[in-house]
Design a protein that fits this description.
0% of the residues lie in helices and 56% in strands. The chain is an all-beta fold.
Length: 119
């Protein structure tokens, strides 16, 4: 199994920045992608950003130009730098990973971390 541990959330005023981190535990599973989803109250969970082991990235339109995802394959860690935050970014942010062992694939999730942006 792979356990994901998130850190870096908190409260910030509009225009501020936060950096989220997510570490995947060591296991027999290799990590081929990691990323972040978020869920605001009363809304569906939505993809924020993702990165694969080759460094290819994908962003939601709402965060392009403001957020940057990066990864460290050796540390099994993904980072999400969030700049120019606005109240619409307020949500619980969930880290996920694409984990593979042989022919078995699954997607572990972190417990979620709160990000609150005040106007």
């Amino acid at each position: 199994q792979v356990h994901l541990v998130e850190s870096g959330g908190g409260s910030v005023q509009a225009g501020g920045s936060l950096r989220l981190s997510c570490v995947a535990s060591e296991s027999q599973f290799s990590i081929n992608a990691m990323g972040w989803y978020r869920q605001a109250p009363g809304k569906y969970r939505e993809l924020v950003a993702a990165i694969d082991s080759g460094g290819r990235t994908n962003y939601a339109d709402a965060v392009k130009g403001r957020f940057a995802i990066s990864g460290d394959n050796a540390k099994r860690t993904v980072y999400l730098q969030m700049n120019s935050l606005n109240p619409e970014d307020t949500a619980v942010y969930y880290c996920y990973a694409g984990a593979t062992s042989g022919t078995y694939h699954y997607t572990p999730w972190g417990q979620g971390i709160q990000v609150t942006v005040s106007s």
